[in-house]
Amino acid sequence: MSKSPVDADLTRSAHGRIAKERLYHGLLFCCAALTVFITGSIVATLAVDALEFFRRVDPHAFFTGTEWVLRSENPILGILPLVSATLVVTIVSAMVAIPIGTAAAVYLSEYASDRTRSVLKPALEILAGIPTVVYGFFALVYLTPWLKQLGLDLSLFNLLSASIMVGIMIIPMVSSISEDAMSAVPDSLREAGYGLGATKFEVSTKIVIPASISGIFSSYILALSRAIGETMIVVVAGGSRARMFDPTNPFANLFNSGQTMTSAMVQAVTTDLSGGTDGYYSMFAIGLTLFAITFAMNLLSNRIAARYREEYQ
């Protein structure tokens, strides 16, 4: 029995939709596989050259050494000064970005009108689109002289200016992700708080923030991961002299130049070191160490988000 024209059209339409869905599925799978392949290729490249470095240099001396002197002949390659400077920049930038970004997120989520939010949030996120080298020159040319006028005994290149500017750079990441997490909190929780006589500030701090704490902490971890991997700001404004952190005089670490892990990688690339030397291969060892740190922080972010996630119907 032959099909009617209507049934034939419906069959062709169904086959067409199935073919399109298979095409979309294949394209999306290829995109996902490509990202995994690229990430794996980067890690494999770092690992191969880092292993070559560790065949030449004692890993114990590399991870516990307190001096970093990059030169063609007899370099001293201890990564602790680079790690300490990276942690200093990360901690100070967190002190700048976390309170400002969280406060901005609370305002955008709980206090700002829809019209105000539609203007302020895109304006705040513009900061994320500014090239980091611009931040670095701004810190060097404007921020450092201004801090000197306040009476701080800063050198021309210093970690304080670089850290403050890194903190300003990551504010949009903290505020945007935190605001999204706060906006996802159901209005019924806010209304329950108001029904009990709570003020807007009490609802914001005692209901909304605890209910969205997983997303807020995730924004902190992701922002700090971004701060750890920042390059151009610390290269331009932080200097390139590796110094070991001095716990007896912490301000000396901030007021003078320092070299982070990313800055040392740039130095290894831009100096006259020839390929195949220990100094050249140190770039890959630093990169692999930096990757391990940021990867661990991302795992921590996922663990915190999963541990404290609130699900609402």
From TrEMBL:
Tell me how this protein sits in the membrane.
Multi-pass membrane protein
Q: Which GO terms describe its biological process?
A: phosphate ion transport
Annotated TM spans: 27-48, 79-107, 119-143, 155-174, 207-228, 280-300
User: What domain of life is recorded for the organism?
Assistant: Archaea
Instruction: Report the Pfam families cross-referenced here.
Output: BPD_transp_1 (PF00528)
Q: Which CDD domains match?
A: TM_PBP2 (cd06261)
One annotated Gene Ontology cellular component of this protein: plasma membrane
The subcellular location is: Cell membrane; Membrane
Q: Where is the ABC transmembrane type-1 domain?
A: 83-301
Keywords, in A-Z order: Cell membrane, Membrane, Phosphate transport, Transmembrane, Transmembrane helix, Transport
One Gene Ontology MF term: phosphate transmembrane transporter activity
What is this protein's record name?
Answer: Phosphate transport system permease protein
